[in-house]
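hey so i finally got around to running the thing on that chain from the lab meeting. sorry it took forever, my laptop kept dying and i had to restart like 3 times. anyway pasting the input first so we r on the same page abt which one it is
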Amino acid sequence: MTYAGLALVAVVVAVVVALVAAGVRRLDARWWAATALTAVVLVALTVVFDSLMIAADLFRYDDGALLGVRLWLTPVEDLAWPVVAALLLPALWALARGTEREVDA
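ok and heres what got predicted. didnt touch it at all, straight out
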């Protein structure tokens, strides 16, 4: 499996969980805006720090398993993981927490 294939599976799972959480917990536009802002910040940090680590030759990728598109030195496939984290973690948190009535009881 290529890096892009694995990343696609992870992103699809994260999007499905986020949509389920939004439906079950009735998450509003503020939640989506905060999630989007978090994703943008995490992607920017990933581009910077992955590029620095790649430049320092701390790790390498199999070029045959990459799409070839890069932002600075970071393969575009690597950007799926901060997006997954930004979607999946808040969605799981929203699903795990009870409603206000369940918490008070």
